[in-house]
């Protein structure tokens, strides 16, 4: 099993290119089921999650060609013969659920094993299934499976009790060929949903308002193939912004959309980081003393839960008291115990993490408990005294393209150890 070793104490400098978004490409791959024609995804991130969802689709006879050198994925779903993908693959990743909407839309049925993913808290699928039922599907959950059937889907008005990203995406995909109009109210507003809407519209869908709190979908008869480049990964960009901040460095981050990063920029600026942008790049200057801040995670456009643990690492290095309140997932402070092994002073009180900045962190052997926690531990290792070894790095590989190589390009002393 691989490890990542980080020797702390080096400042970062130079520039880094950000990959396209994992959280955008996964629903786009799933949406390709809707067409019996070829779909092409350009500049796709070569991530473990991308490989897993591709394998899930292969088990239902989808032809997927991944060119890792060209970062291109070609998907041909014209020969799908089965609506029940391999359960062992589905269990590996929660995003497998994203095929439910396309399957019920195109084939009128699906059967999936209940999936897995990062253990960051309860993430029920009731809102997904409520949406399918509202469109006319008969849904059943039992014996470790969820299945649905529908002779015909009919548009409806659907109000989400919580602006769930996955539910919004699944219902959008389910509704594209439903008869009449579907309106999703209190929809999630993440940029990745806007990107999915663009992809679906390029396939022939009629969607208005993707990326806002009200999404309107007018059903069409069929969908076609298309070519698409996903948006930049705002969480990867945010992680490198924090890498600059935690090492008190100056770096340039390329291939980003400043609009997507506003909540992260706002909080880093509040802490004293100087951030400027020229449209396609962001310049981060943290070569100064920083101030403690409070953070509350919220659905977009609030501060992203996926950046919570990385910011915790930064706040451990800033003198004074900071408080992070997590409102999305109830079990997203598992990084705290690992950071304490490095000398962090963190106290968990319910949904809040109270952080007292320390004079220094020290290297230790720590474990990536989930994707973003793993990235946060790498960030802590960049400034810790001595060597930090991070295990269970397969979590990190699910969401970051060659993170150690990108950090090496900025001057970090980091390497992957093959065990």
UniProtKB/TrEMBL annotation:
SUPFAM superfamilies: EPT/RTPC-like. It catalyses: phosphoenolpyruvate + UDP-N-acetyl-alpha-D-glucosamine = UDP-N-acetyl-3-O-(1-carboxyvinyl)-alpha-D-glucosamine + phosphate. The modification 2-(S-cysteinyl)pyruvic acid O-phosphothioketal is found at residue 118. Pathway: Cell wall biogenesis; peptidoglycan biosynthesis. The active site is at residue 118. Phosphoenolpyruvate binds at residues 22-23. Pfam families: EPSP_synthase. UDP-N-acetyl-alpha-D-glucosamine binds at residues 94, 123-127, 306, 328. It comes from the Bacteria. One of its GO terms (cellular component) is cytoplasm. Its EC number is 2.5.1.7. GO terms for biological process: cell division; cell wall organization; peptidoglycan biosynthetic process; regulation of cell shape; UDP-N-acetylgalactosamine biosynthetic process. It is an enzyme of class 2 (transferase). GO terms for molecular function: UDP-N-acetylglucosamine 1-carboxyvinyltransferase activity. Keywords: Cell cycle, Cell division, Cell shape, Cell wall biogenesis/degradation, Cytoplasm, Peptidoglycan synthesis, Pyruvate, Transferase. Residues 8-407 form the Enolpyruvate transferase domain. It is found in: Cytoplasm. Belongs to the EPSP synthase family. MurA subfamily. HAMAP family: MurA. NCBIfam families: murA, PRK09369.1. PANTHER family: UDP-N-ACETYLGLUCOSAMINE 1-CARBOXYVINYLTRANSFERASE. This is UDP-N-acetylglucosamine 1-carboxyvinyltransferase. The gene is murA.
């Amino acid at each position: 099993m691989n490890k990542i070793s980080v020797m702390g104490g080096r400042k970062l400098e130079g520039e880094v290119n950000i990959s396209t978004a994992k959280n955008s490409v996964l629903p786009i791959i799933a949406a390709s089921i809707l067409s019996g024609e070829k779909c092409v995804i350009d500049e796709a991130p070569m991530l473990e999650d991308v490989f897993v969802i591709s394998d899930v689709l292969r088990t239902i006879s989808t032809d997927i060609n991944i060119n890792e050198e060209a970062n291109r994925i070609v998907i041909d779903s014209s020969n799908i013969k089965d609506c029940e993908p391999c359960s062992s693959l589905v269990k590996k990743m929660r995003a497998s659920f994203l095929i439910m909407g396309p399957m019920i839309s195109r084939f009128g049925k699906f059967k999936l094993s209940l999936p897995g993913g990062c253990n960051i808290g309860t993430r029920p699928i009731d809102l997904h299934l409520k949406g399918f039922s509202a469109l006319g599907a008969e849904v059943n959950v039992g014996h470790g499976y969820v299945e649905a059937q529908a002779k015909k889907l009919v548009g409806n008005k659907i109000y989400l009790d919580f602006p769930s990203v996955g539910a919004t995406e699944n219902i959008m995909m389910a509704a594209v060929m439903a008869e009449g109009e579907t309106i999703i109210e209190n929809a999630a507003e993440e940029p990745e949903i806007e990107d999915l809407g663009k992809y679906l519209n390029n396939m022939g869908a009629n969607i208005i308002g993707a990326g806002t709190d009200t999404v309107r979908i007018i059903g069409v008869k069929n969908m076609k193939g298309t070519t698409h480049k996903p948006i930049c990964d705002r969480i990867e960009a945010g992680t490198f912004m924090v890498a600059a901040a935690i090492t008190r460095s100056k770096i340039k981050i390329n291939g980003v959309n400043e609009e997507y990063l506003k909540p992260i920029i706002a909080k880093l600026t509040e802490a004293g980081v100087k951030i400027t942008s020229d449209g396609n790049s962001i310049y981060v200057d943290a070569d100064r003393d920083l101030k403690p801040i409070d953070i509350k995670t919220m659905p977009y456009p609030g501060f992203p839960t996926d950046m919570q643990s990385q910011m915790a690492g930064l706040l451990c290095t800033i003198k004074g008291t900071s408080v992070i309140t997590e409102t999305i997932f109830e079990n997203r402070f598992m990084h705290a115990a690992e950071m304490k092994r490095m000398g962090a002073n963190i106290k968990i009180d319910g949904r809040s993490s109270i952080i007292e900045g320390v004079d220094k962190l020290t290297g230790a052997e720590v474990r990536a408990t989930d994707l973003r926690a793993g990235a946060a531990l790498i960030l802590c290792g960049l400034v810790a005294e001595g060597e930090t070894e991070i295990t269970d790095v397969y979590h990190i590989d699910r969401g970051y393209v060659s993170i150690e190589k990108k950090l090496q390009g900025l001057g970090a002393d980091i390497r992957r150890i093959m065990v």
